[in-house]
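Technical note accompanying the year-one report. For the benefit of new consortium partners, we illustrate the data format agreed upon in the data management plan: each record pairs a sequence with a structure-token string. No post-processing was applied to the example shown here.
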Amino acid sequence: MSDALIQTQIAARRDSLIALTQDLIRIPTLNPPGRHYREICDYLAARLAASGFTVQLLRATGAPGDSETYPRWNLLARREGAGPGDCVHFNSHHDVVEVGHGWTRDPFGGELDGGRIYGRGACDMKGGLAASIIAAESFIAARPGFRGAIEISATADEESGGFGGVAWMAQQGYFAPERVQHVIIPEPLHKDRICLGHRGVWWAEIETKGRIAHGSMPFLGDSAIRHMGALLAEIEATLYPHLTTKHTEMPVIPEGARQSTLNINSIHGGEPEPEPGYTGLPAPCVADRCRIILDRRFLIEERIDEVKAEVTGLLERLRAERPGFAYEIRDLFEVQPTMTEKDAPVVRTVAAAIEKVLGRQAEYVVSPGTYDQKHIDRIGKLKNCIAYGPGVLDLAHQPDEWVGVDDMADSAKVMALTLAELLPE
């Protein structure tokens, strides 16, 4: 009966769920540069304070990206129960990526059409944030005598690494295992899937060196672009085929991400791009520099030093074989793979709730890219963490992004029944 009451409470809040999601989408929290972060935190603070939560607004002063123009604001809300017990924390990021081209709807309109709410961030992940709030409010209404605590956070900059959000909060101790025991991140990974973790990532910048000369006499110079071309050819000939031989036992989705991957994120060489409005021709020069950014995603079976050695070994081979080849390589970013065990308490509990609500067993998956679980695990030292939330992962960052109302309602039921199991009366 108690579980049925919780689900009834969620059904009664369907209109509130829709309105909340629309309101969140209509706050254009674009990252970069980090717009309207304080506005969305103020909005959520008012909402959660009215529901009995104690609210803190936390600025990640000094974190990457934080400035007086674009301060990195985070919200943390906590509702204490009637007695001691575990703390369940729902963490959502409030930032969204650029709009991009190809939209047929207002990207910040929050339009409701055919059971879908459209807008940038609808799927990734304001729909999940709204669902977690409705879940908590419904659970509290149905089980006012619960023991333990519920926390809800809305954090900055997940789309650019999370350093002004969850990483900073973890450094301050907000995810310490003695104060938080269970974490659910409502990323859009389908309402019947539990995401246990993610692959690793290594970003690096490689610069090839050359010597400038007049373009009519290139033999007096040394083209950094040609050296980079040799590197790219070597990557195509040897590194890409090598990566296809590396496969993981992690249940990564989609299937293509169950092997190691490499993306050339960008390439820049020679003269800078002309300023907008310039109509002249470029100067005739041999390029004395060329840079690429590598985005290497690796598996839990791989070691980061081996991943880096594959690239540096290739560079050293070119330096030995190619006259004039010189380079610099700089680490930009690295994250170790992480995966929570299937028998962890939060995993077992969410899986049981999925079966109750949806009538089928949960699917266990791993994300091809990273999300804020990396900081909760590595900095916070909290292993009992998963991603679970509404939405279709493939829609993230796409034009006409949307989230289904039924999916949000079902996910809210799963989250609320999870609270009922982990925070008993």
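Partners are asked to follow this layout when depositing records. The chain is about 35% helix and 20% strand.
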